[in-house]
Amino acid sequence: MLSTFDSNLFLQITYTPKTLGQTHTHKDMEDKQSRELRSEEEEEEEHAKVDVWKYVFGFVEIAVVKCAIELGIADTIESHGSPMTLLELSSALRCDPSPLYRIMRVLVHLKIFKEKPATQLGPKVFAQTPLSKWLLKSGETSMSALILLESSPVMLAPWHGLSARIQGISNPAFEAVHGEDVWSYAKANPDHSKLINEAMACDARVAVPAVIESCLEVFKGIATIVDVGGGDGTTLRLLVEACPWVQGINFDLPHVVSVAQECDHIKNVGGDMFDSVPKADAVIMKWVLHDWGDDECIRILKKCREAIPENKGKVIIVEAVIDEKDEKEDIKLTNVRLMLDMVMMAHTNTGKERTLKEWGYVLGEAGFSRHTITPIHAVQSVIQAFP
């Protein structure tokens, strides 16, 4: 039998190695975590060394894409009906093959066009991709006018005044450069007004089918609808095609609707949405309210509310909704919405993209009793506001 002394000694011998082992393991874990943290920091540093170059030369991508549209590269390959060699493409575009190849090399790297390697049957060729078809100058999937608008000298110049705009030491960026707001400038410059209308039509060809696909029931029971800020009428034309029971009113400034196409079931009406809105069962607005600050939005929404029936009317708003939770599965569209908010800061006096809370505020202040927000497969969501 062990004495008390022997027992204590036995316990020390038995458990001390285990305790020492635990302490050693804990220290190892701390060292490992420290190494991992240093490794992550070093990795971030390495990424930063490369990533910073995106901001040094970030403008090059839009310049190259604009060049591709102006040259008509996508249109030329599409018209040819099959992939083209560099010599075929340069001949069709009437340009030097050497600089053209350098442009194509970048466009292939950006995955806008595809380069198919040479084979025994022939030299390497350049082919269309789903993305390049968005650069066609016309067609249902063309976004070229919107790209040309945003990359035009008129719209690029205000970006140089963004810092002063944020510091509050100058007029709104567009006014600081051009001496008037974007709407006054467009009225005085028909070519720019035309480009704006074409750009908005580009978005309509993407957004309206997405609205119809996800929210067709929104238009059931509506006999008449007025598109406030409807531009050249593309939104209404697409809507009436999908909902032939609807009669439409395309409402915009007189100089805008004066060049809008005539269309069955659609009437073009000139006016000012700050004064009054034509009466209808429903109002639709796409990319209108984001051009204005809260006070102006509330004024516009009140005029829209006056135009619809109290008992069954609705205002349908097709606008971006910024989700501040930043859902990962929607990260690309979140990026577009945030960039669009910066566009509003550069190109309008008070415009902005809004969060759920901000939409709730302007709709409530305009006198709407309730509203719903439905995400769709587009940059925008569908907001329904009820009296």
UniProtKB/TrEMBL annotation:
GO biological process, one term: methylation
Residue intervals of the O-methyltransferase dimerisation domain: 53-138
Compositional bias ranges of the Basic and acidic residues kind: 25-38
Active site: H290
Ranges for region Disordered: 21-43
Alphabetically ordered keywords of this record: Methyltransferase, S-adenosyl-L-methionine, Transferase
Stored Pfam families: Dimerisation (PF08100), Methyltransf_2 (PF00891)
InterPro entries: COMT-like, COMT_C, COMT_dimerisation, SAM-dependent_MTases_sf, WH-like_DNA-bd_sf, WH_DNA-bd_sf
O-methyltransferase C-terminal domain residues: 159-369
Domain of life: Eukaryota
GO MF term list: O-methyltransferase activity; protein dimerization activity; S-adenosylmethionine-dependent methyltransferase activity
Family statement: Belongs to the class I-like SAM-binding methyltransferase superfamily. Cation-independent O-methyltransferase family.
UniProt protein name: O-methyltransferase domain-containing protein
Species this protein is from: Prunus persica (Peach)
